[in-house]
Amino acid sequence: MNHTENAAAVHPVHRDDVGARMGMWLFLFTEILLFGGMFLAYAVYRFQYPEQFKIAAMELNTSLGTLNTVILLTSSLTMALSITALQKKNKFLSLVMLSMTIFFAFAFLINKYFEWGAKFSHGLYPGSEELLAKSNGEIVFFGLYYMMTGLHGLHIIIGIAILLFMLVFIIKDKVTYDNHVKLENSGLYWHLVDLIWIFLFPLFYLIH
Amino acid sequence: MDQGHSKHEHHTPGYGIYIIIWLVLIGLTSITVTVAGIDFGMIALAIALFIAAIKSALVINIFMHIKFEEAIFKVFLLVSGMTLVVIFLLTFFDVYNR
């Protein structure tokens, strides 16, 4: 609480950084519930078709999944470092780290493109004849796979857009060492995307 | 002002902690992948979820700064987390007893 009042006293423009972060967290909770509902659907169907989920999961590329996990974890690191660098008044390092985060985000999407591309070329996409010929459990597995990783991928794309805006804001000194709540909130969003992947990865790629 | 600001800076971790946490996260990922290769049967899922829970706790506390935030943030997190747990428990109570 003290911090809020102090921050308002220092800056001529009224600002509430704690309130801004709190608002961001409230938004993140709606995201958690959105994905939570899908994880719930996943849990119920996995409980119903354990063997068929196992068979379907063998189609997924564990190495690509692991690589994407490492890429996202590393992008989370560069995101956190970018914020710290800005707080330590090192604008250049902050820009470098933020650019690396965006680079890793693109790398993740490129991997995802190849991964999905391989599935499509094997005739495994929602509604395909090959998929519909499979058992119910496998159809549900791939439905959940495309829905959940697809929505996650959409979050990555939105994240890239937000981070690009932050890059411009830092370059133009709209986001600075003493006014960085925008960058912090973008970071929170980015870490959430990482957080969701932490659960998606073992649940889809590591069933044996 | 200075008091408040230095207080905030004091709570802002340096570069080091993030790199350590990143190494731990990478380590946990390799453990999870290795363990998945071994046939643990029914508890394999429990192990995978347990490791994922540790990883998410690290991300939330350190990367997302919850550890350094005011108490109300932790209360919010607890309430939303518990909401999710209750939804899962009630749904499984239903599914399991069908």
Task: Give your account of this protein's structure.
The complex is a heterodimer of chains A (208) and B (98). Chain A is mainly α and 208 residues long. Chain A has one domain: Up-down Bundle (Four Helix Bundle (Hemerythrin (Met), subunit A)), CATH 1.20.120. In chain A, 82% of the residues lie in helices and 0% in strands. Chain A contains eight helices and no strands. In chain A, α4 (62-87) runs antiparallel to α5 (91-121) and α4 packs antiparallel against α8. Chain B has 98 residues and is mostly helical. Chain B has two domains: 2-64; 70-98. Chain B is built from four helices and no strands. Chain B has helices spanning 2-11, 15-37, 43-63, 71-96. The N and C termini of chain B lie far apart (61 Å).
Number of helices of chain B: 4
Into how many domains do the coordinates of chain A divide? 1
- What is the largest interface, and how many residues per chain? A-B, 51 and 51 residues
Fraction of helical residues of chain B? over 70%
Helix content of chain A: over 70%
Distance between the termini of chain A: 49 Å
Query: Rg of chain B to the nearest angstrom?
Result: 18 Å
Shape of chain A: elongated
Strand-residue proportion of chain B? under 5%
Structural class of the helices, strands and pairings of chain A?
A: mainly alpha
The total of beta strands of chain A comes to 0
Quickly count the helices of chain A.
Answer: 8
Give average pLDDT of chain A, whole number: 92
Keywords:
heterodimer, A: 208 residues, Four Helix Bundle (Hemerythrin (Met), subunit A), 82% helix, 0% strand, B: 98 residues, mainly alpha, flat
Q: Which helices and strands appear, and what pairs or packs with what?
A:
The complex is a heterodimer of chains A (208) and B (98).
Chain A: H1 2-10, H2 17-48, H3 50-57, H4 62-87, H5 91-121, H6 129-132, H7 136-171, H8 181-205
Chain B: H1 2-11, H2 15-37, H3 43-63, H4 71-96
